[in-house]
């Protein structure tokens, strides 16, 4: 224990503040170093003993993880949203670095998964594709906003089509608004072209991964959705069961209880009071939730999942809840098939006992 060192790093663009504690929690070193690869590596190499190191997830965390991981015994890139103790008391870079080291030493940090280098390129091309998608949607919304602000209805996608674009622009009488609208259309054309190239890159890259050949068997999961799943999840073995996977996808039901135990005839027993629910969890991966929700929308119209969706509707389940249930099922099957490296069997969907096996 005396040889263990617990290092907290408060990382900024130019400088990084470091605090080092020993096994008993005593501050043995403080430093302010440049946020440069060689400077950070030299500092870590200069520490003796078994090194445990942490810093918060941020812009530079992926680079720092790749840089520091080979040099330490333990590295935790912690989730700042879970570090409530960081907000208590005085705040400064030195104080924050020391608090991180103390939380690391006490085992109170929740790590953020960073995966391995095998999916690095896939992550980058997927990030590019999603960014271009987001930018294009933003421009499309701005185009419609100009028409909507002048009382011109723009339902559907006709307003974006090149063949009818001049007719739409002619409805705008204000010259300044027309200039802005034409610029937005040019921006949309550019983003659409770039998105096509990015899509080809994503499809080409994802087909190189062994997981693609497993997941492509699942109906409603195409190359783009599979690419996002692999890039985000990296390894299915991060999650022991679907109960751990669902909250990461935004499908975990939040439950609340209180006064769980009562005394009956002098004995402590668990109360029969029903567990309350508070909707779905709010801390989740947005891209992953969107993928499985879109997959559920598609699957609800085609076999083999359509039969299951229709059964839920026949039981008087609301469409929104039926769609959520289907999304949870597709995500559970995805995890199970990926972990087992098994073939997807649509026959299991109609057999309740076999379905329990595939989503366990």
Notes on the structure:
With 360 residues, this protein is α/β, with parallel strands linked by helices. The protein folds into three domains: 4-105, ATPase, nucleotide binding domain (Nucleotidyltransferase, domain 5, 2-Layer Sandwich), CATH 3.30.420.40; 118-208; 219-270 and 286-358, no CATH class. Helix content is 49%, strand content 15%. The protein has 13 helices and nine strands. It has helices at residues 37-45, 61-68, 93-105, 120-148, 165-170, 175-206, 210-215, 223-233, 242-249, 286-299, 305-314, 319-340, 352-358, and strands at 4-11, 15-22, 27-34, 50-56, 74-78, 253-256, 261-264, 267-270, 276-280. The strands form three sheets. It has a five-stranded mixed β-sheet with strand order 3-2-1-4-5. Strands 6-9 form a two-stranded antiparallel sheet. A hairpin with a 2-residue loop joins strand 7 (261-264) and strand 8. Helix 11 runs antiparallel to helix 12. The longest helix is centred in the middle third of the chain and has 32 residues, at 175-206. The protein starts with a strand and ends with a helix. Mean pLDDT is 90; it is low at 355-360.
């Amino acid at each position: 224990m005396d040889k263990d060192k617990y290092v907290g790093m408060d990382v900024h663009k130019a400088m990084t503040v470091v605090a080092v504690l020993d096994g008993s929690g005593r501050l043995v070193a403080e430093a302010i170093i440049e946020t440069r690869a060689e400077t950070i590596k030299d500092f870590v190499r200069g520490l003796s003993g078994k090194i445990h190191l942490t810093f918060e997830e941020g812009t530079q965390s992926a680079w720092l993880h790749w840089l520091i991981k080979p040099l330490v015994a333990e590295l935790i890139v912690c989730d700042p949203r879970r570090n409530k103790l960081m907000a208590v008391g005085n705040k400064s870079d030195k104080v924050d670095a020391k608090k991180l080291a103390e939380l690391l030493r006490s085992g109170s940090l929740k790590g953020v998964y960073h995966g391995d280098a095998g999916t690095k390129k896939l992550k980058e091309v997927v990030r590019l594709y999603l960014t271009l998608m987001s930018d294009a949607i933003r421009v499309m919304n701005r185009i419609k906003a100009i028409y909507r602000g002048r009382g011109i209805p723009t339902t559907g996608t006709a307003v974006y089509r090149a063949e009818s674009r001049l007719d739409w622009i002619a409805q705008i009488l204000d010259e300044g608004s027309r200039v802005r609208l034409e610029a937005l259309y040019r921006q949309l054309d550019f983003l659409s072209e770039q998105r096509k190239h990015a899509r080809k890159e994503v499809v080409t890259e994802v087909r190189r991964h062994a997981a693609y050949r497993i997941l492509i068997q699942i109906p409603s999961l195409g190359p783009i959705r599979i690419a996002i799943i692999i890039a985000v999840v990296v390894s299915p073995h991060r999650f022991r069961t679907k109960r751990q996977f669902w909250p990461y996808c935004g499908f975990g039901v939040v439950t609340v209880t209180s006064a769980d135990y009562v005394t009956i005839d002098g004995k402590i027993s668990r109360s029969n009071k029903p567990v309350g629910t508070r909707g779905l969890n709010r801390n989740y991966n947005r891209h992953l939730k969107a993928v499985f929700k879109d997959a559920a929308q598609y699957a609800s119209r085609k076999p083999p999942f359509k039969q299951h969706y229709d059964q839920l509707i026949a039981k008087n389940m609301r469409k929104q809840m039926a769609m959520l249930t289907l999304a949870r099922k597709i995500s559970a099957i995805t995890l199970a098939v990926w972990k087992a490296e098994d073939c997807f069997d649509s026959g299991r969907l109609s057999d309740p006992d076999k379905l329990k096996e595939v989503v366990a």
